[in-house]
Amino acid sequence: MCYDICGGIKKARKELNMTQAQLAEKLGISKETLSRYEQGKTIPGMDVIIKLADYTNHSADEILRLRRYDVKTLNDNIEKKFKKEFAKQLRKEFESELRESKTLK
């Protein structure tokens, strides 16, 4: 879901009369990444939000365009992503240790 974050990013870009490629270059990210932010497929990190806010002379709140009820959902989504990434990392470490133990035998 997009919430208002993607709308805030796209609105800021449009106000600057910039293409996704132009703004992405200024932010140090790929055009594809910026596109995913604007489509709501990916949530930008605070570093990107802060860069965007600084570059556009908007506050981070304006970029995020969060409402009180969005914050819980956003936190839930971040928690799910963290758990998924944590599980991936644990799996990699377990597989690595398993391979190591097999080579030691």
Describe the protein:
With 105 residues, the protein is mainly alpha-helical. Helices cover 77% and strands 0% of the residues. The chain has helices at 5-15, 20-27, 31-39, 46-56, 60-64, 68-104. Helix 2 (20-27) packs across helix 3 (31-39). The relative contact order is 0.13. The model has no long low-confidence stretch (mean pLDDT 80).
Primary descriptors:
mainly alpha, 6 helices, elongated
What proportion of the residues is helical, as a percent range? over 70%
Strand content: under 5%
Measured distance between first and last alpha carbons: 49 Å
The gyration radius over C-alpha positions equals 18 Å
Q: Which whole number gives the mean pLDDT?
A: 80
C-alpha geometry: elongated
Poorly predicted segments: none
Number of strands: 0
For the report, how would you describe the main beta sheet?
none
Please give the count of helices.
6
Write the H/E string, N to C: HHHHHH
Sum this structure up briefly.
The protein contains 6 helices and no strands. The protein is mostly helical and 105 residues long.
Fold topology:
Layout: H1 5-15, H2 20-27, H3 31-39, H4 46-56, H5 60-64, H6 68-104
Helix pairs in contact: 2-3
